[in-house]
Amino acid sequence: MRILPRDGSIPYLTDWNWLLTDGHIPGHVSLFHESSRALVAGDAFVTVKQESIYKVFMQELEINGPPKYFTLDWPAAKASVLKLAKLSPLLALTGHGKPVQGEALTIGLQKVLENRDIAVLQADCWEYSFPRLREAYPNIGF
């Protein structure tokens, strides 16, 4: 493991840049290829609704914010989706779901930004995820 350069460059991948996309987890990064407008978003947003077992099995294309069950900071997560949307990517690969491109990507990101109720999601996150995490990992410090 290496620390990424502060200038956003990626050693050995000269045409790619990294962006800090906190929210899902601290230190989360996404990768962007400027000339092709390709984005590797990781879990900053996903293309399958992770909270639906049916949609996960069927891999129905549906752009959503990061997985609800383990996103630590919803305001930062929304800011990260906005940062990525402003790049106007033409293709996105995410940590969960199928690749998405073109108009489906643009419209999907806009819907995520318009429909995220941060207060509700933040409350749900704390109510659902953290008690279970504290129970499973008592020494982690949540």
TrEMBL record:
Pfam families linked: Lactamase_B (PF00753)
InterPro entries: Metallo-B-lactamas (IPR001279), RibonucZ/Hydroxyglut_hydro (IPR036866)
Record-annotated membrane-spanning stretches: none
Every Metallo-beta-lactamase domain range: 5-96
Catalytic activity: 3',5'-cyclic UMP + H2O = UMP + H(+); 3',5'-cyclic CMP + H2O = CMP + H(+)
Described purpose of this protein according to its UniProt entry: Counteracts the endogenous Pycsar antiviral defense system. Phosphodiesterase that enables metal-dependent hydrolysis of host cyclic nucleotide Pycsar defense signals such as cCMP and cUMP.
The protein's name: MBL fold metallo-hydrolase
